[in-house]
Hints:
Blueprint: E1 2-4, H1 6-17, H2 29-37, E2 41-44, E3 52-55, H3 57-71, E4 79-81, H4 89-97, E5 103-104, H5 105-112, H6 116-130, E6 135-140, E7 143-148
Antiparallel strand pairs: 1-4, 2-3, 5-7, 6-7
Helix pairs in contact: 1-3
Pfam families: DUF3489
InterPro entries: DUF3489
Protein name: DUF3489 domain-containing protein
Amino acid sequence: MTKFTRIQAQLLTQAAATEGFIPPADTAQTTITSLIRRGMLISLPGADGPSRLIITQAARAAIGGAAAQSANADADEPATVPIVKAQTKTDLVVTLLSRPEGVTIEDLMRATGWQAHSVRGAISGSIKSGRGLDVVSQKIDGQRVYRVLVDATT
């Protein structure tokens, strides 16, 4: 079982409720860094402001039961949740591509640490061909944005 402090559980719950969550200024950076290292959060640097936090699928699964536990938990008592396998970078790319607004190559590069040609290769190979997802790109406000088309019939 993985344990979260009350503050970590609250931060993850807030990130789950808000896509591109920007943590309050008084949130301890060590708490955020710890959750990023554990594969629970992804930090996407803002172009003209603070970084945004995106919760991973592993963290969503982990806080499923922890959110209720942490609501009544004592400050010193950690919430207990099951251990979930860390998300792969390809899973992360799929998650970001699945957002309704899509994602830019630059955001994918920051999230994965890959170079642009590696991101495009993953989209073309692992995601389009390997997983059979329909990825489209379009220019929006002068930037190329990629996203997965969602079938309305499913």
